[in-house]
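Issue 218. Parser rejects a valid record. Input:
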Amino acid sequence: MAATGSFSAAARRLGCTQPAVSQQMKALEASAGTPLLVRTGRETRLTQAGEVLVRHASGILAGLTAAEEEIAAIAGLRAGRVRLVSFPSGSSTLVPTALAALRAAHPGTRVSLVEAEPPRSVEMLREGDCDVALAFRYGSAAAEWDDLVVRPLLADRLVGLVPEGHRLAGAESVAIADLADESWIAGCPRCRRQLVEVCEKAGFTPRIDFATDDHPAVIGLVAAGLGVAVLPGLAMESVRLKGARTVTVEPSVQREIVALTLPDLAQVPAVAATLDQLALAAPR
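Output the parser choked on:
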């Protein structure tokens, strides 16, 4: 209207009817709470409030256009951000492969990574501090993620570790009860609880002399002859065994590795693409 001088001219430029433009102006004046136009006979001119609105209109329209373009880029995976949290053995195995593939397919998508073990990583997801959580659970905790979208990735079997010169170092498989008298090196709190549960089912309580979340440290302690341990198979992929031997432990114990997100976040293209790449990385 400010550019064309009349409702009818504005309607022609916009490709709509003159009554439609008039209705929009009435709605705009109602929203502003003050008249924007003064009509005197056949002439229509801007009020002071109308002049202020026109002065800011170009910036508003430019901002809307920029917002639309940015949203379209995110929706089309030309841009976007994903905050990922992972436990350490996942960070060193699954995450690099998944993120490299994501960057190759969608170079505009940016992913940040921090480390935390469950349940802290799951709390971070629920508190809005991350978008995807790589986590694990043992069978007894099946209902703890009912409010989340759960993408199963793989079943990770626990592997026994004994010193190189241990009496059972050459055995194909070892009953966990055969290690009842050993000194134990335990991992993260959740893994520690699982170890105690498995040992107690086998008829003994493990004597845990050392506890560390650092998998190379576990291997170092075992290699020094200070005890035995069980570690997830995933953790063994990124560490060097020197002075320790792996053995198959019976009964078999597995942890389920999953990627978690919130139901609303699962619809965000960058988040969905991250989940897909984590799922593709798991079998490798």
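Fixed in the parser; the record now loads. The first helix runs from residue 7 to 14.
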